[in-house]
UniProtKB/TrEMBL annotation:
<protein>
    <recommendedName>
        <fullName>Xylose isomerase</fullName>
    </recommendedName>
</protein>
<dbReference type="GO" id="GO:0005975">
    <property type="term" value="P:carbohydrate metabolic process"/>
</dbReference>
<dbReference type="GO" id="GO:0009045">
    <property type="term" value="F:xylose isomerase activity"/>
</dbReference>
<dbReference type="InterPro" id="IPR001998">
    <property type="entry name" value="Xylose_isomerase"/>
</dbReference>
């Protein structure tokens, strides 16, 4: 394996494609397990990951979740922009049409500074030429609108504002103590027990508001 890697890395970066429904060993069930496997054998510098919408849903995660897992670990290299029917439970190779999902996806791409060495690819199985044309155009249209939505969110700063407000307790008081690994459960219990129901409801509302804000596009 290492001999092969040495040769291939002279040519390009290797893209690993996690799939929860193919391998019997399940070392590439999702992005997290794939990262653990690569980390275990010291291969994180040799591989990037190709994240596929449909494979993400088959593993029980959203595509945005898988993209963020790959991104924060420096592994995001390519996106296979084909989706599937979540009720079927198999890789049905459909073109992306959900602009809301595309918005989440493009937010990860922007945070990643783009995609390298890959990009977006549409690996869908269509045989009728006119169908291929329509579906490719629609897939690109969906991603383009997702990118435009992210640009709007970045320009007005509303989404970042919601995130900061939701997690503002970690910038001071007990939250900062926990992040500094100096807190304990006893202190946390005293802090929470003193809160009114209204305060806790506001915290939950901030999480819901974040999701609603992103789904308005």
């Amino acid at each position: 394996m290492f001999v092969t890697l040495t040769y291939i890395c002279k040519i390009s970066t290797i893209l690993n494609n996690p799939n929860p429904c193919l391998s019997s060993c399940r070392y590439d069930w999702n992005i997290a397990t794939t990262f653990s496997f690569l980390q275990k054998y010291g291969l994180t510098g040799e591989f990037k990951i190709n994240v596929e919408f449909n494979h993400a849903s088959l593993s029980g995660h959203s595509c945005h979740h898988e993209l963020e897992t790959a991104r924060i670990n420096g592994l995001l290299g390519n996106i296979d922009a084909k989706t599937g029917d979540p009720q079927i439970g198999w890789d049905t190779d459909q073109f992306l049409t959900d602009i809301s999902e595309a918005t989440w996806v493009m937010s990860s791409v922007i945070k990643n500074g783009g995609l390298a060495p890959g990009g977006f690819n549409f690996d869908a199985k269509l045989l009728v030429l006119i169908g291929i044309g329509f579906c490719f155009v629609n897939g690109m249209y969906t991603l383009t609108n997702g990118l435009r939505n992210v640009a709007k969110l970045m320009e007005d700063g509303s989404l970042d504002g919601l995130v900061r407000k939701r997690h503002q307790s970690f910038d001071s008081e007990i939250g900062a103590t926990i992040e500094a690994e100096k807190g304990d459960l006893e202190t946390l219990e005293k802090k929470i027990s003193g809160k009114q129901l209204k305060e806790l409801a506001v915290m939950l509302f901030q999480s819901a508001l974040y999701m609603v804000h992103c789904s308005c596009f």
